[in-house]
Amino acid sequence: MAAADRERENRAESRTPRFRLDQPRTPRPKLLPDYDPEAFGRLSERIARFLGTGRFIVWMTIVIILWVVWNVAAPDHLRFDQYPFIFLTLMLSLQASYAAPLILLAQNRQDDRDRVNLEQDRKQNERSIADTEYLTREIASLRMGLGEVATRDWIRSELQDLVKELEEQRNGQHGDGRAESRVVFPSEGGRGRDAGDR
What we know:
The radius of gyration is 47 Å and the shape is elongated. It has a domain at 36-166. The protein has helices spanning 2-15, 37-51, 54-73, 86-147, 152-171. The model is unreliable at 187-198 (pLDDT under 50). With 198 residues, it is mostly helical. Helix 2 (37-51) packs across helix 4. Helix content is 66%, strand content 0%. InterPro entries: DUF1003.
């Protein structure tokens, strides 16, 4: 019974190859040529940028005019594209069939860059909003703290009240020549600190 189980296990192992996880796989042969997509993308952007310039339109117009003039005015044995200009049509179609995907590839790369820039701008805006909220809270706490600090006008009014009380005490001396001594606290001065003093 044990021999049959071992034989079944050996058959199952021989059918499915076991891959070791501690060793890298051997690379498979590729049918397509290997290329750098970043370099190809930069090249496509350069071509698409050139296709969108006035210089390309001028050069293409000059080539087409020369093509038509040569194939109309040149001797018969030197003409390579007769009147319907089928070869010219084929060349323009070929140029358009390559230009459209290159332009789309360049646009996709630009969209990816715009998306990354937009994400960075969004994160920067979030940081700016957080910094602004923090500064707003700090300014509010400073204003609350300053609300409890004595202002110059309030201190001046308290000192004037104290001077008046001292003058009254000096003028109102008792018959024995002693001045009435009384400790005056700022809260007893009859004038408390309110929002108008600030």
